[in-house]
Amino acid sequence: MELIPGSGGVFEVTVNGVKKYSKKETGKFPDTKEFIAELEQMGLE
Fold this sequence. Notes:
Shape: globular
Strand order of the largest sheet: 1-2
Oligomer: single chain
């Protein structure tokens, strides 16, 4: 994973070029536990 600073309150998570989450699209931050579980299922820790 790589942290790429954004601006304007944008929070997006991209894994291997695939967007997994966008605060800009949903208007909120992801549920932490659910999102971490999803990343772990992908083999990321």
